[in-house]
Amino acid sequence: MLRCELGQLRMKRLDKVPFADAKIQERYDFQKLILQSPNAFFEEIGEPNLIVIGSEVRPNEVVADRADIVALDAEDGSLVVVELKRGRDKYQLLQALHYAAMLAEWSAEDVIRHYAKCKDMDQENLEEASEDLREQDVELDDINRSQRCILVAEDYEPDVLITANWLAEEFGVRVSCVRARAVRDQHVGEKQGDVVYLELQRIVPAPAIHEFFGGRARKPGRGSGGGVSAAEQKRKEANRRFWTELREALLQAGHSWAENRTPSGDHWFPFSVGRGGIHVTASFAQGGRLRAEVIMETGDRETNKQMFDDLQTKSDRIQSLVTGDLSWERLDERKSSRVAVYRECDRDRLESDGEYRQDAIDWLIKRMCEFREVAQKHLV
Q1: Phi, psi (5° rounding) for residue 228?
Q2: pLDDT of 236-249, one tens digit each?
Q3: Which residue from 114, 203, 288, 319 has the highest number of Cβ atoms inside 10 Å of its Cβ?
Q4: CA quadruple 300, 301, 303, 307: dihedral sign
Q5: pTM
Q6: Distance CA 259, CA 255 (A)
Q7: Could you report the per-residue pLDDT of 106-142, keeping only the tens digit for each?
Q8: Closest among 52, 51, 73 to 220, alpha carbons compared
Q9: Of 175, 98, 102, the residue nearest 144 (C-alpha)
């Protein structure tokens, strides 16, 4: 960083100093600086849509570790782990991934409750917190459909950067690495007091050329959030096109409940049924399959499991309402449970063959309507 003295038309280089010399401590000064001025910090690192959900967040009851900061991306609803380090730490990435994996089990209600706690709102009646998030353009149904990590450190071991880039490019795991440097203006002297400048530079993923073209950044696609490979972005665009066609077909068939849903690039497309935490969802499942499901994902694990168990006692009756063999998935390792039907799905053919695509859409509409009837009769 250079200090420009315009009167004398000269520049002087400012000194970069270690956080320790600048008296910036990891979990106190650095974290508090961000929490006191989150908008300034997030905008500086190119993340203007992030909303702080909490700090020192314990992501799971079975572990004592706490995430430094957890944020919510208002653009796509993803949860973001912000992990801070002074110096460099080769385990920082692994630590952040652990937190993200555990946060993936949170329901939207869990997220809203932590936000309420962060804002000193009522944690029992979440309407105030929910409305506050809506006013910040958060789609509540999209909350925590995906997770990502932002690492912030003074420097990084090469293997951390290589691994972060590999995860993004090969698997679409969204990880950003930001280098933070403390800078002191030695030319100001004692009158500067405790002022230290913070230089922030995103180094993974490397800034794309469009972020500099014309001197301004292009707004990323919904759900991109940085760290998305070209292949991943292409897949997201294909998802969005397909969900858009599905929504249009639903509306043309007179299903007004699809009207307020906005297609995203995610691999799922959820629709509410009139009770919080219960959704009828279309999704691309593993193994080259298309899935229609009713999913129970309220904030309470025991409630979800009890609803699932009660539903399963009526399995013959439920099967009579849904076309195709039901897959009863209690998902004991997760908080949620679901009942689903599947069909094979060739993604390449789905893109290129209009007749095949229409057949898939018709299949989804029929099963989603059937699951909606199941939910309204037995879950709402």
Answers
A1: -100, 125
A2: 889 999 999 999 99
A3: 114
A4: positive
A5: 0.57
A6: 8
A7: 999 999 999 999 999 988 888 889 888 988 888 888 8
A8: 73
A9: 102
